[in-house]
Amino acid sequence: MKRVLLLLALAGGLLPACHSGNQEKDRQDTASMVVPLLSTPYYYTQLKGAVGNRQITMELLKTAPNLFRGYYYDDSTGQPISIWGSQEADQVKIYEDNGNREEERFFGGTLSDDGIFKGVWHGDSTSYHFELRTDLRKAQALKVYYAADSVQLLPSFTGSPLGIASNSILWPDPATDSATAAFLRKAITGDNRVTDPERFVKRAIDSFVTSYRIAARDADSSDMADGQSASWNWTTESDMKVVYNTWPLLVIEKYAYDFTGGAHGNSGAFYQTLDLAGHKEITPDGFFKPGYKEVLSPLLDKAFRKKFHIDEDESLDQSLLVKTIVPNNNFIVTHKGVAFSYVPYEIGPYALGQVTLFLPFTELKSIMK
């Protein structure tokens, strides 16, 4: 019953009856909140508007200097699409991950301090004007904190390799009610005793710098002279993004990339689907009826074939490391469906990258609680 009520809330914008009352009354009023998109160094905001005949919602973050990240989705489908971009002078270009390397899709335009992003969307051999406006009425307000540092491997050596670290985190807005703020802090940090975001955002960076300095004890300047310095240019990048944010549901992505020598770095995005009213994480085991994995695997196989244009008569293990795709716990829920995401090497080779497969609720009715 609770799961049905939650889905009704997502689809119709209504709070579930089991979470109404004091929790809704205490929820932060975000209706009039506007984030200045030009003058705020780092931020999260939710934008809504039309692109052609599509109504969309964009979860936009500025996670580092001149760097934008986030997701957007068509309101009619609810399927999250990853976005990233940068700003040059007053022009912002934000690309979307469409899986088609032959044609770019992107939002090009300007941001304003009154919370508006407007310009022209390009893709599918056409273009549309758009104007997206801040709309946080049903969203959880969040802050973004960023930190970075670098250290030379051999400070006395000219052209020394560098270790570079950066981290960006989400944090509950100060006006968030205390219970929800505590729940979010624990989801973000893994420890509800952590209350200082500026110290927390630097924790991973300090750990990396310490590890790099320890590794430097084994470095030999003669290796640098022989052209082997590239493998010592270590990098770690972490950030958090909002995938979906409509009360009471918040979906967060935690992304990490590390290069510590070798053929290539390693990366992965991990998702948390949070019920802000119930103060709990939503998992597949709690969302679906027993036996759901056997039902979902053929649907995930089908979704993979469609996304990567694999014929029905071709075995999946010709493209993947598995014969069939089993649902995992890297789980996303929106108002229109769910997604399962697989990091490199989990089901496919490194070159395939992270694979995220979306399944609409219309295909899942038989297994939903």
From TrEMBL:
InterPro entries: DUF3298, PdaC, PdaC/RsiV-like_sf
rRNA processing keyword on record: no
Leader sequence segment: 1-20
Deacetylase PdaC domain ranges (all copies): 200-267
Gene3D superfamilies referenced in this protein's UniProt entry, alphabetically: Fervidobacterium nodosum Rt17-B1 like, Heat-shock cognate protein, ATPase
Pfam families hit by this protein: DUF3298 (PF11738), PdaC (PF13739)
Keywords of this entry: Signal
Domain DUF3298: 287-361
Entry protein name: DUF3298 domain-containing protein
